[in-house]
Design brief:
This protein is an alpha+beta fold. It is built from five helices and twelve strands. The strands form two sheets. Strands 1, 2, 3, 4, 5, 11 and 12 form a seven-stranded antiparallel β-sheet that branches. A five-stranded antiparallel β-sheet has the order 6-7-8-9-10. The longest helix has 44 residues.
Length: 239
């Protein structure tokens, strides 16, 4: 009985199906190769960006760099990147007198434009954060007497001398300057008043060369130290 299959040959429908299967497999392999090449390229670019951030002086510590968006190669050809993230620990900042470390620094950069064969980079907008320990903050605000700081609750720091708590105050920022003021004497210090009150005059320090060219936008006392918030717009990142 004739079943519709040409005698002496293959089923054309089967041949067509095998052709589509080969094409699908071929496209899958090609896509995998392209994705793999894209990921290799972004990894190389992230390492190069980390090196240039250090060599340019924008960061004292080599950061982890993560370039957002896919595919990377399309962004690289245009010289415009949607987003870049930075993370580093122990980034050095200074008040012009001595250096201290900013821990757990991280920044999110939006609208990164590169030029001059990737020797320059600008950022449309950026946000970031980092932590200065209380001992390091105390180094930056020292007067004639040794004054130590610790966490005093939401928005507050405790001041102490030789381990004895003498008062609590508030912390805020004015530009790139961190200010501790509004101290109130507490405990035995309140009874002594006089000299103790003199110790609690407003203290401040101004940071220079903040990481990644950002500016200080705020400061919040936390149990581990002073949490710094950074902001920036039209920032020259490299070059």
């Amino acid at each position: 009985m004739d079943d519709g299959t040409p005698s002496g040959g293959d089923d054309p429908r089967g041949s067509e199906m095998r052709g589509w299967l080969k094409l699908t497999i071929g496209l899958g392999v090609l896509t995998g190769l392209l994705v793999g090449a894209d990921r290799v390229a972004v990894g190389v670019a992230e390492d190069e960006a980390a090196d240039r951030l250090v060599s340019s002086g924008r960061l004292s510590t080599r950061p982890n760099v993560s370039i957002d968006g896919f595919p990377f190669l399309t962004q690289a050809l245009s010289g415009e990147f949607d987003g870049v993230k930075l993370a580093a620990d122990g980034v050095q900042v200074s008040d012009g007198r001595q250096q201290v470390s900013v821990h757990a620094f991280k920044a999110s950069l939006s609208g990164v434009s590169v030029g001059d064969s990737y020797r320059s980079a600008t950022v449309r907008s950026a946000t970031g954060s980092g932590l200065i320990s209380y001992p390091d903050a105390a180094k930056l605000v020292q007067g004639a007497e040794r004054l130590d700081f610790s966490y005093g609750g939401p928005g507050k720091v405790k001041a102490s001398v030789a381990g004895i708590s003498i008062g609590e105050g508030k912390v805020h920022s004015e530009g790139n300057t961190v200010v501790a003021d509004g101290f109130q004497l507490t405990g035995m210090a309140a009874a002594l008043n006089g000299k103790m009150k003199d110790l609690l005059a407003p203290r401040s320090f101004t940071l220079s060369r903040l990481p990644a060219g950002l500016s200080l936008a705020g400061v919040t006392p936390e149990p581990e130290g002073l949490l710094l918030d950074f902001r920036g717009s039209d920032v020259r990142l490299i070059g």
